[in-house]
Automatic annotation (TrEMBL):
Keywords: Phosphoprotein. This is EAL domain-containing protein. The keyword Protease does not apply. It holds the Pfam family Response_reg. CDD domains: EAL, GGDEF, PAS. Residues 266-339 form the PAS domain. InterPro entries: Biofilm_reg_signaling (IPR052155), CheY-like_superfamily (IPR011006), EAL_dom (IPR001633), EAL_sf (IPR035919), GGDEF_dom (IPR000160), Nucleotide_cyclase (IPR029787), PAS (IPR000014), PAS-like_dom_sf (IPR035965). It comes from Shewanella metallivivens. The modification 4-aspartylphosphate is found at residue 57. Residues 570-823 form the EAL domain. Residues 9-124 form the Response regulatory domain. The keyword Phosphoprotein applies. Signal peptide: none annotated.
Amino acid sequence: MKMKKKANVILLVDDEPANIKLLNNAVSALGKTYFASNGKEAIKMAHQVKPDLILLDIQMPGISGYEVCNAIMNVSALKDTAIIFVTAHGDTEHELKALQYGAVDFLQKPLNPLIVEARAKTHLELKNKQHQLNLTRGTLDSIIHHLPVFVAYWDEDLNNIFSNDIKGKWFGLTAEAMLHQRFSDVIKQNETLDGTAISVLLTAAEQVKLGKNMEFDLTFNASCSDAVFVSVSMVPTLLEGKFTGFVMLLNDITPMKVLQHDLHQDKELLKVTLNSIGDAVVTTDVNGIVNFMNPIASTLTGWSIEDAVDKPIEEIMPLTDSSGHFPMVNPIHIAIKERRIVGMAFNTLLHTRQCKKLEVEDSAAPILDEQGQTQGAIIVFHDVSETRAMALKMSHLANHDSLTNLPNRMLLQDRAERAINTAKRNNEKVAMFMIDIDNFKIVNDSVGHKSGDILLKKIANRLLDNSRNIDTVSRQGGDEFIILQPEITKLDQVASYAQRILALFAEPFYVNEKRFDLTCSIGLAVYPDDSMSIEMLHKHSDLAMYRAKELGRGRWHFYANEIGSSVLARHKLEQYLRHALQEQLFEVYYQAKIDIRDNQLVGMEALLRLRSADGMFISPAEFIPLAEECGQIVPIGNFVMRKACEDAISWQKMGLKRRVSINISPMQFAQDDFYDTVYKLVKELSIDTGLIEFEITEGVLAKDIERTRNVLESLQELGIKISIDDFGTGYSSLLYLKRFPIDILKIDKSFIDDMLDDESDEAIVDTIIGLANSLRMQLVAEGVETIEQVKALSAKGCFVMQGYYYCKPMPYLQMCHYLQENT
């Protein structure tokens, strides 16, 4: 806020009222006016109002103006008051006398108001400026005398003119004692300066006389522990280029010198420390530009310190992940951006300047100034390549068999735990194979342990080569091996693999050109069927292995008899299917379809049959799904298709022309060459395609819709009828019926069985019949076994039926007689 300027105070002193009035009119605009008519009153008023200006008449009764002036000037509070004498005397003698008494001006009567105003205004302004100058001078004097530095001035002869050292702190001389002393005398008298410092100062003084500025540092009390470091400045003053003196400034820089010394010591200590530690250290500025690295960092990165400085950290320390292909952000940038300590990512590779790859680890941190602002960052790292390699080696040795390098019991335990946990989540099985080499002790005793060890390695390699990547082949010691198989979905996978292991041992082993014919006994245990824990899995497979040995060695055995029997039976059936296909043991039977409206046989369905070695039929429900699983359904399906076509041609030649429906497996239909196979068979046999009907399930329609439609349309163009078997039990959809070329719907036996007793099944039958009639499709009811079913179906509009009520499936010759009897 700007301070309000103080108004001028003017005292008018005259014994004539007319003069007072004239003076007041002349100066009232310049300030506040006060009046006195005699000397005593003037002196009293001056003490009260402390005027800036007094217009004082000389000739007054009693005390004259001179006496009033003298009285006022002797008062310290009033001595700076400006006094202008007013008199009728115009001689020089009175003017000089007035000035001698301390007046600043002289006004002669008669008074001219304009001159009075001008003179008063001038002296008021001069007084105000003088007042400001005094304030400034006092302030400057106070500042100079309170500066923490020494300030002095020497004239052209190097005599002291001024010094602010009132107490004599710097040279042992007060400012008063130093006044008018020569520079050299002041310097030489100072006991705190040694000879060198004195010589430097005297030489500097000579240079200053030549007009040169001199700046340098000196040490006071250099030989003492309490030495003072001083910054010296000597600046000449010139007038028209001529030397007139110089100003000398001395500043105590001891704290700064001590700080510099401490910083230097700390820096040297830090430098020695960083150069001595075993870790690499690199620092950067806030932009990631390198400004320091220690020798270890230079060694690890391959960059010299000189070459690395001023380069980006990415160029000096290129980092990637463990693969070496994916660049990684240097932690320094994260530390700078997020202002926190950042650990280096695990498995980080440093690519050196010489293209080597080192595994490194450690961390980066931001560097902050005293205000907490980020100035850069530091990264500390070290080479862990050998450490990690050793750790990996030690871990490998701890988890692997030293002879065969296979996982040992500890690693097997870990993998078994993970396998069982995964099996729980995915509803799968885990199998453990306990393998013991039969009579291996005899081998060791006959050829020695060295050859025995080589043989064990060969066995280990053969087992590894014939296992899946997800399997664990483990050696438990001696001649005992364990194989862990996760992700098992079918038990026959376990039996097949056990059989394959036996086959592996059927091949001879050779060590040093000596042949070894070995067998093994295998015990099998399966989680969760007969073992709910790793311990039980191991125990049960071990027991099963001993059981295999008891049964004669060279074989495998399940821990649970029922599982072993089931898997064995399934395995035998699979082998028998292959044998039956090779030896053409499959038979095709036929079941008639009857149109009850005229009781005529309108067609028949070809049904596959297979007898076991003892002449008993094997249920299609048992062997057909297995044939699909083991990939034999396609050749079996092709066999049925050919046989049914040949029989249809045979009946046609006998004058018993009837259409034969053939079941097509989804796997068979999915073959890329299915249509080509049908077309070639038709051309080869020259069959009337009106005799052929293909039965497919709804599941076929739901897969690869575009291809399915194309194949079905091509078959229809060929003249083959298409029927949907077991309609309503699969993916039944009106969309499928509309989208695909379907001729016939077959109502599944499951609906016919309960149609008379179950309203839901009856409703389904009604719906299928109504749907077929609406879409103008033919209908066939399967599994008709009673007259009640016949009546109910015919009443609903279904007239073609197939089932035991009319006839059971029969072989070709019997069907020939049936056709002749019902023609």
